Amino acid sequence: MKRLNIHEVNDVRLDDYVLPNAGPKDVVLKMKACGICGSDLSYIKWGGIMREEGGVTALGHEGAGEVLSVGSEVSGVAVGDAVIVNPMATPSNIGSGGTEGAFVDQLLVREAEKGKSLLPIPEGVSYYVAAMCEPLAVAMHGVNRAQAKAGQKVVVFGCGPIGLGMVLWLADRGVEELIAVDLSDGRLERARALGAKYTINPSREDLREKVMEYHGQGADMIGQPRADTDAFLDAAGAPQIIPQAIRMAKAHARIVITAVYHGDIQTPLGEMLTSEVEITSAIGYPTEMPEVVAAMPRLKDKIASMISHRLPFESVLDGLKIAGTPESAKVMIEFGDA
Ligand SMILES: [Zn+2]
Q: What distance in Å separates the CA atoms of residue 219 and residue 240, rounded to the nearest whole number?
């Protein structure tokens, strides 16, 4: 059995692994699919997360698998069940600094609970689509924090897997005046296919001018021209995005930060004063996973289109390299006969 571990900064290895003994509250899964996340790449750059000296960080938090064994005190879960893992609902914080990671042949899910840490995969949904649940839940939480509704005008910055997920949910909720922004034309094409009516590539287009053109002109509280955009969602994390959004924001627009920032950014507070813009952030998916799972049968083809690469577990190190290139979308790792 193998598991993907970070040992040091930029040192990630597929190591031999022995499954710990499962207790009466635990479930063991035969992993079937696990997506590579942008945060996996960050953890590798940082040399792990919450890693003890000489220890490793096990990677993988976007997993789906088949139940291999069930502890005597676990109810509602049976051998052979197809399930999605909610890593945030496990005591071992799977793949984000805890004792387990889902890039592994067999995964120990400690204190497993149906409906919480293990969500049944709906009929007709494949494992690789099911494994999109985690990033799609992150994206849905960002959309929820933006309070985006049908008929509104929204801008999404960044068309990696999270930004694409936001486009998917916004379009699904009836947001038609939807602009996607990215530096990669390939990513913008995916965004258009998922429901973005307009796309902007700021490497050759003036962002503010284009947003004003597509969304029309609104105003701040004192009547100065601003974009008529209701919400800006940041899934990119470039330092110029928030200042640009603040300068464009009309009265009572919302800005939601889902991206990971590593340093401080300059904020044009003067221009913020006149718009009463609301800036907030979105982390994880406190409530969204069940709704994502319920939507999967309806949206499975669109979800599958967000996956740019499917690789076997043996090639996970190649997958990590691919995931770092701007033309990739979700890189999905599959195990055995998944
Ligand atoms: Zn993730």
A: 22
Please say whether the beta carbons of 127 and 33 come within 8 A: yes
How far is ligand 1, taken at its centre, from the CA of residue 71, in Å?
Answer: 27
Distance (angstroms) between ligand 1 centre and the Cα of 216 equals 34
Structure token digits, residue 16: 């031999």
Residue 115 counted as domain residue: yes
Full domain range(s) for residue 95:
2-132+306-334
State pTM to two decimals: 0.95
pLDDT tens-place string over residues 217-240:
999 999 999 999 999 999 999 999
The per-residue pLDDT for 171 is: 98
CA 134 / ligand 1 centre spacing (Å): 6
- Length of the chain as a residue count: 338
How far apart are the C-alpha atoms of 295 and 143, rounded to whole Å? 15
CA 61 to ligand 1 centroid distance, Å: 6
Residues 126 and 250 in one domain: no
Quick check: is 239 in a domain? Answer: yes
- Going by DSSP bridges, is the β-strand pair 27-36/106-109 parallel, antiparallel, or unpaired? antiparallel
Amino acid 237 reads G
Q: According to the model, what pLDDT value does residue 50 have?
A: 85
Residue at 226 is within a domain: yes
Q: How far apart are CA 319 and CA 322, in angstroms?
A: 5
DSSP 257: E
153 and 253 belong to one structural domain = yes
Q: Do 217 and 327 reside in the same domain of the chain?
A: no
State in Å: Cα 95 to ligand 1 middle.
9
The verdict on 128 and 155 lying in the same domain is: no
Is residue 297, in this structure, part of any structural domain at all?
no
